[in-house]
Hints:
With 365 residues, the chain is α+β, with helices and mostly antiparallel strands. The chain contains five helices and 14 strands. The strands form two sheets. A twelve-stranded antiparallel β-barrel has the order 3-4-5-6-7-8-9-10-11-12-13-14. A hairpin with a 6-residue loop joins strand 13 and strand 14. Helix 4 packs antiparallel against helix 5. The N terminus is likely disordered.
Amino acid sequence: MTRSCWLLSALVLSSSAFAGDDLDDILGRDDEEEDGPAPAPTGPADDLGPRDADDVGDGRDANDGTDLLGNDSESAAVPGADTADAYRQATAQAKGMFAEEEAAFWEQYLATYPNTQFRERVQKRIDELMAEMYSRRVDDGGTVDAMDEEIRFAQSVLLDNIDPRTRLQAGVEWGNPDWINLQLDYEHALQRTFSVHGGIEHQYAGWSLGAGVRWAAIKSTRTQTLLTLMADAYLVTEPAFPAFRPQVAFGQRIGDRVDVQAQVGPALEFRSGVQLVLQGGANVSVQATDTVSVFLETGFSAKNFSWEGDPFRYQTLTLGLKFFPLPAEKRRNLDVGLAGSAPYAQQYWQHHFGAILAQANYYLD
């Protein structure tokens, strides 16, 4: 009996051991899995996941440094589209341009790349430039359309005004021994670049009544440049004859304080046929202070041109000062000039040996 019980117990234990081994085989477990970590996979590098060993994490390839986020060497996929490199180059090119020039540059950029991915940035920059162009601050603290802003170019004393504006001019010149010149002229600007005028003065040909027009083909507040075409018709009283005088003039402001100008043109005098007189001159004005400027001016007149000898000619040099006596907010509305003039070269003509003159210009615009 005792022996039978022992045999039965051994059979039960053996069955349990075999059953445990079979369960482990079914679940796929072994002793090594329970006692240590799982071995590393041995597949190719792509099995590492979405980020491989060559990706350094900043969008650049670790081997050659290529910018994977903005590879500008690839052409745009959409027709009319640009690349980041093209936009960066355009931005560098536009740097330092004047407002008008830069606005035109970006408008051309949009025309070249109508499907640019940077359209919003470009359009915003154009809007900023347009606001700058058409709303600039002026001396009186207000705002004025840049297309209406005046250059306020220097007015010479013995040459014609080349900056179309509304103004009243009066002046007197007295020379030794018997030279006298009175100036009285009113000019009215119909547009910023176009004006008409009329007045009286004493020219080398005699006292005259005249009228004319001035058209500034170029009047740029950006470059501070004037290119003006002028045409005057006048009647000389002693002796009486009509005349016509077309001229072209150029003016340039250098920096903030220097104005340089020159003008030249023929005068056609209709007496005993048609006589040609060539007239012109130049002026340099320097704004020494806010209330005083100094100027140097030269003028010439010549006629009776022929191949046989020198023409009649008379050339003068004028040096003077201009004062701006009004308060600061109205200072540029009035200038008063005082000067001395003398001939430095002549042939057959000698209108005076030297003269002093005074002139005032009151601007109504």
